[in-house]
Amino acid sequence: MTTDDAVATEQAPPPAPKKDEPGDSFLSHFVHNLWAANTFTVTVLSILLALLIGAVLIVVSDSAVLDTFGYFTARPSDALTASWNAVSTAYADLFKGAVFDPETVRTGTWREALAPISETLTYAAPLVFTGLSVAVAFRGGLFNIGGQGQAVIGTIAAAVAGFSFGLPIVLNLLVALIVGLAGGALWGFIPGILKARTGAHEVITTIMLNYTAGLFLTWLILQKGVQDPGRTDAISKAVAESAQLPSLGGALRVNLGIVLAVLVTAAVAWMLNRSAFGFELRAVGANPAAARTAGISVGRTYTLLMVVAGGLAGLGGATQVLGTAYSLTPAVAGNIGFDGLLVALLGRNRPWGTLLAAVLFGALRAGGNRMQSFSGISLELVTVLQALIVIFIAAPALVKTIFHLRAARSARLGASMAKGW
């Protein structure tokens, strides 16, 4: 090459970069984000990590499997086979109890085939409401620990309305649901107004109100007019049949509560993203001082926010007592309020993410019952799985480090996935 040719080459402009076609661009973004630290990938890998640790716990808790490790160096195949059989059987029972049992296709009826998913949705319905209660409050900058107490008051109000009014069918159910929602909203109003007027921290007030609601329930059940006259133990009258949530599948336990949960989730999503109140609560949650400067009443927003959060939790309690329990007992609400905290965290405080997280927790609960019955695995292990999933979800940097995930892109698909569900 001559000197003139070299100079001409140096002065020639670099070739223009080739633009990706729209289809190639989307595919490249998808492949890149498939192993990036976005919400979807972190959630899936967190569940896998929890299942792997759960598998180790299953092996450790099985004495028969541990015995095979006593002569592992002599015959390692025995230990590996026994471990695989224990873990695969337990997780197969988890799936069969939560989603679908293939054996029912050949030997059972359609009701038996749909029974697992029915149990999952039955457990999930109240968790959707309590999870939304926590998620909505968090989006407004408040940490609603009082979902349990608000749910308890919701169960009390709905049950008393359900066996006291004696209204016609449909109307009795509507009134019971509305009264349960109002009971939870009233219990949420107390910490909301205290926060707005006195600056009392909502975590402290809601925790105290949880104890108050639980003690009030225990006292109320034993009062004349509420306690079942034919019983001496702590149980109330049964909710009238006209106030019970109708079943969606005859003999199946799933009821109208799950449909109501989906509708309420859609309403909450609209409220947060499309309504003026949703804009105000998000502004207050992001920066209360700036919101106040813009003319938004922070105290009023806090109060209304806790009323809405309490109403959602109260509706979850009403769904519990009108859909499955049908009577008040000291443990009628279970731990749906506290589980709602985990559901909201797993759902990234997004309405539809909270719904999916509630279904996952319902599946673990339903499948855990079958694991206990058929595999001898305790329900405490299912609780450990739930806790591990939440721990890994709450610590995305840990998951990113373990799997060497790339940083999520901020453009196109990466941006939408990084924002959550």
Protein described:
The protein has helices at residues 3-11, 22-34, 39-61, 63-68, 76-98, 103-107, 110-139, 147-164, 171-198, 202-221, 256-274, 276-286, 288-293, 298-325, 336-346, 351-375, 379-394, 396-403, 412-418. Helix 7 (110-139) packs antiparallel against helix 14 (298-325) and helix 8 (147-164) packs across helix 14 (298-325). Helix content is 73%, strand content 0%. It is built from 19 helices and no strands. The protein is globular and about 70 Å long. The chain has a domain at 125-352. The protein is mostly helical and 421 residues long.
Overall average residue pLDDT: 86
The sequence of SSEs as H and E is: HHHHHHHHHHHHHHHHHHH
User: Quick one: biggest sheet?
Assistant: none
Structural class by helix and strand composition? mainly alpha
Number of helices: 19
Query: How many beta strands in the DSSP annotation?
Result: 0
* Portion in beta strands: under 5%
Low-confidence stretches: 19-23, 410-421
Shape: globular
The value of Rg in angstroms is 26 Å
Q: Compute the separation of the termini in Å.
A: 59 Å
Helix-residue proportion:
over 70%
Element layout with pairings:
Elements: H1 3-11, H2 22-34, H3 39-61, H4 63-68, H5 76-98, H6 103-107, H7 110-139, H8 147-164, H9 171-198, H10 202-221, H11 256-274, H12 276-286, H13 288-293, H14 298-325, H15 336-346, H16 351-375, H17 379-394, H18 396-403, H19 412-418
Helix pairs in contact: 2-19, 3-5, 3-17, 5-16, 7-11, 7-14, 7-15, 7-16, 8-9, 8-10, 8-14, 8-15, 9-10, 9-14, 11-12, 12-14, 15-16, 16-17
